Amino acid sequence: MKHYYLLLDVGGTEIKINALTQDKALLLEHHVHFPSLSDQSSEVILDHFRSIILDFIHRFKHDYHFSGIGFAFPGPFDYLNGVSLMTGLRKYEAIYNVNLRRRIESWLFDEGYINIPIIFENDATCFALGEYHQTSDINRGMYITLGTGCGSSFIADNQVVTSGFGLNSAGMIFDIPFRTGIIDEHLSINGLKKIALDKNYPFTNGKALANNAFSGDTLARDVFSTFGICVGEGLASFIAEFQPDEVVFGGQISQSLDLFKHSMLKEWGTTYPVVRRSLDTTAATLYGLYHIILKNKGDSL
């Protein structure tokens, strides 16, 4: 019976889930999406996680051996102990300081599973590792996710960079001061929304704005162009200091990269790295999480 690892990409809006076998094959053709319920009570959030986890374990139990579970969470988060430290970020406020590792161990124990590896890692780090290991000729890469917040991870010489280059104490950029606040407030859906409203554009959501822009709506395209200036300005100092070979964007807003790439690149001068968007942010995140699980187990990658 083949071994498999259950993998969850936990976002502020959605939880995406799939499973990978020991030979790196996805068990499901399409990732399964659930609403995150991240603005609900702790009881609702925890019950939601429990229901999702046990549903998938039961789904695969007759055909595959359950060998581990991994969670890609946004920060701030105590990844070693499995404790959420998110507060003031509009997501998962109700489970602040809750030890998720102990809860999950209890749920698994009730199902007869003991000593199952449980891994927590930063979602942007997982995304970065998944993208980085897909490209053999990249030495230094910057990996940025644009969604409810701005996730980031820098990799050099096969190692995640945790200090220097203007990064915070956790090796990230989300809380670095920028304009009238911090990067997270501007390089995110809230930043895009603010630009739209400042231009008197009737903002409903990012997808609708992008669809209108791709359809030729001049004002919608101007919103994204201005957003590109903001992204370019926000990342410019990190580009200059880190000198990456590539910058890869993931997250929902990255699907609109063609709408803001040109104005963004202008902020970086005449010489800049390769810029691309992830073809599948979730797949990259799950593969990166899988990479971390195997590394922690000491298995060959």
Q: Which CATH architecture of the largest domain is right?
A: 2-Layer Sandwich
Outline the biggest β-sheet. Answer: 5 strands, mixed
Tell me the distance between the termini: 20 Å
What's the order of the H and E elements? EEEHEEEHEHEEEEEHHHHEHEH
Mean pLDDT: 94
> Would you count the extended β strands for me?
14
Across the major sheet, the strand order is 3-2-1-4-7
The CATH topology of the largest domain comes to: Nucleotidyltransferase, domain 5
Percentage of residues in helical conformation: 25-40%
Based on helices, strands and strand pairing, what is the structural class?
Answer: alpha/beta
Overall form: globular
Rg for CA atoms: 19 Å
Give the CATH superfamily of the largest domain. Answer: ATPase, nucleotide binding domain
Low-pLDDT segments, ≥5 res: none
Give the CATH class of the largest domain: Alpha Beta
Number of domains: 2
Number of helices: 9
Beta percentage is: 15-25%
Protein described:
The chain has helices at residues 42-60, 100-110, 123-132, 183-186, 189-198, 206-214, 218-242, 257-266, 281-297, and strands at 3-10, 14-21, 32-35, 65-73, 77-78, 83-84, 118-122, 140-146, 150-156, 159-160, 177-178, 181-182, 246-250, 274-277. By secondary structure, it is α/β, with parallel strands linked by helices. It has two domains: 3-116, Nucleotidyltransferase, domain 5 (2-Layer Sandwich); 136-282, 2-Layer Sandwich (Nucleotidyltransferase, domain 5), CATH 3.30.420. Strands 3-2-1-4-7 form a five-stranded mixed β-sheet, sandwiched between helices. It has a five-stranded mixed β-sheet with strand order 10-9-8-13-14. The two termini are 20 Å apart. It comes from Halolactibacillus miurensis. This is Glucokinase.
